Amino acid sequence: MIIIAAVIIGALLGWFRAGRHGGNKRDRLQYAVAFAIAFAIIALFATVIIDRMI
C-alpha cells in the first residue's frame, strides 16, 4: 500500500517539477517515470524496514 501511494506521489511531483522548468510533454513524462521509480524504491525499503520491526 505504501508503494502504490509513493509511486503516485512521485509521478505527480515529477510531472509538476518538469512543468516548472518549462518542459514539454515528453520531459514531464520522463520526470514522472523517474520520480515514480525512485519513490517506489524508497517505499520498498521503508516497507521492509517496517515489516522487520513488527
Largest sheet: none
Question: How many strand units?
Answer: 0
SS strand fraction = under 5%
Rg, rounded, reads 13 Å
Assign the structural class, choosing from mainly alpha, mainly beta, alpha/beta, alpha+beta, or little secondary structure: mainly alpha
Q: Which residue ranges are poorly predicted, with pLDDT under 50 across at least 5 consecutive positions?
A: none
Please outline what is shown here.
The chain crosses the membrane at residues 28-50. The protein is an all-alpha fold.
Walk me through this protein's architecture.
The chain crosses the membrane at residues 28-50. It comes from Paracoccus caeni. Keywords: Membrane, Transmembrane, Transmembrane helix. With 54 residues, the chain is an all-alpha fold. It starts with a helix and ends with a helix. The chain has helices at 2-20, 25-53. α1 (2-20) runs antiparallel to α2. Helices cover 89% and strands 0% of the residues. It has one domain. The mean pLDDT is 96. The chain contains two helices and no strands.
Task: Give short descriptive properties of this protein.
54 residues, mainly alpha, 2 helices
Mind sketching the topology for me?
Layout: H1 2-20, H2 25-53
